[in-house]
Design a protein that fits this description.
With 157 residues, the protein is of the alpha+beta class. The chain is 31% helix and 34% strand. The chain has a 6-stranded mixed β-sheet. The longest helix is centred in the first third of the chain and has 23 residues. The radius of gyration is 16 Å and the shape is globular. The N and C termini lie far apart (43 Å). This is Nuclear transport factor 2 family protein. It comes from Streptomyces ziwulingensis.
């Protein structure tokens, strides 16, 4: 399959939006981060645990949802790999987060796959985030609390 030049530019812009999403999230720059999204964008978490919404819609809701992330996790996103797609506005990305859950000091090591759609201006319109909630729950659980399958997390609204 031959990729048209405009498709290559659109693909590069879409991938750049995802890379910027990760950079700004890790840096805790929520105000800059939310500008990467279209006004009616959707952030979706299919495996969200209790206490975290499965779907967040619109910039105001996105901002509110992510407002506590910088106080909850100190992370870097590494090993970013983009998978080629037929649609240049569709990005499939694999990456890892490595860092610390700030309330507990425990390590936060997460592996993610994200499926992201962008518009003609390379703004994110739909971000489908596949991450393991058990990793977050364990990282946010104080050392003195025994493991419990009914535990929820408090970093989302």
């Amino acid at each position: 399959m031959t990729v048209k030049k405009d498709d290559a530019g659109r693909r590069a812009a879409a991938q750049h939006a995802v890379a910027e999403h990760l950079r700004l999230t890790a840096a805790g720059h929520t105000e800059e981060w939310v500008k990467l999204f279209a006004p009616d964008a959707v952030l979706e978490f299919p495996y969200a645990p209790a206490g975290v919404p499965r779907r967040v819609t619109g910039r105001d809701a996105l901002r509110a949802h992510m407002s506590n992330f910088p106080e909850t996790f100190d992370v870097d996103f590494v090993d970013l790999v983009f998978h080629e797609t037929v649609d240049p506005s569709l990005v499939i990305a694999e990456f890892r987060s490595t860092g610390t859950a700030l309330p507990t000091g425990k390590p936060y090591e997460q592996t993610c796959i994200s499926v992201v759609r962008t518009d003609d201006d390379a703004r994110i319109t739909h971000y489908l985030d596949y991450w393991n909630p058990l990793v977050a729950i364990e990282a946010l659980t104080p050392h003195e609390v025994p493991s419990d399958a009914d535990r929820s997390v408090a970093f989302g609204r």
